[in-house]
Amino acid sequence: GIFDTDDGYNIPLGNALFPDLSESVFELERKICEFYKLERPPSSHCAVNRNAEFTPHVDSGRGAGQSLSMIVGLGDYARGSLFIEGESHDIRYAPLEFDGWRQRHWTEPFDGERYSLVWFTPEMKTKKLKND
């Protein structure tokens, strides 16, 4: 994962090794929100997944919940939709907000190279921001 700020969480090594990539990931979130006119506060975290096929689950986060997630699929792949509570969503170059903490979700099997970016803010971070 990629973290936007140092707030007491263990910052992934990738942030230090690839600072331009980390910055670009959060800039992409801002551009998506602007383009789709989403009323979404900037996220503090982003999970970057490559060729991951997730089985049905709800996100566990750090045990305290999280904000709405926003996901987008990137790459040259076929199928690979995101299922949320049994409903299929084509996320390839099509961002989608959902509640990964409460809604059961999984990845449809796919062929090709598939990346997904999942932006979110853990609940502990959300409470901290509200109190600042």
Summarize it.
The chain is α+β, with helices and mostly antiparallel strands and 132 residues long.
Which short descriptors sum up this protein?
132 residues, alpha+beta, five-stranded antiparallel β-sheet, three-stranded antiparallel β-sheet, 32% strand
Question: In words, what does this structure look like?
Answer:
The protein is α+β, with helices and mostly antiparallel strands and 132 residues long. Helix content is 24%, strand content 32%. It contains three helices and eight strands; from the N terminus they run βααβββββββα. It has helices spanning 13-17, 19-36, 123-131; strands spanning 2-3, 45-50, 69-79, 82-84, 87-89, 96-98, 105-107, 110-120. It has a five-stranded antiparallel beta sheet with strand order 1-2-8-3-6, covered by helices on one side. A three-stranded antiparallel beta sheet has the order 5-4-7, with no helix packed on it. The two termini are 25 Å apart. 23% of the residues are buried. Mean pLDDT is 87; it is low at 125-131.
Q: How would you summarize the topology of this molecule?
A:
Blueprint: E1 2-3, H1 13-17, H2 19-36, E2 45-50, E3 69-79, E4 82-84, E5 87-89, E6 96-98, E7 105-107, E8 110-120, H3 123-131
Antiparallel strand pairs: 1-2, 2-8, 3-6, 3-8, 4-5, 4-7
Helical percentage: 10-25%
Beta-strand fraction estimate: 25-35%
Spans where pLDDT lies below 50 across 5 or more residues: 125-131
The profile of the biggest β sheet is: 5 strands, antiparallel
Structure summary, number of beta strands: 8
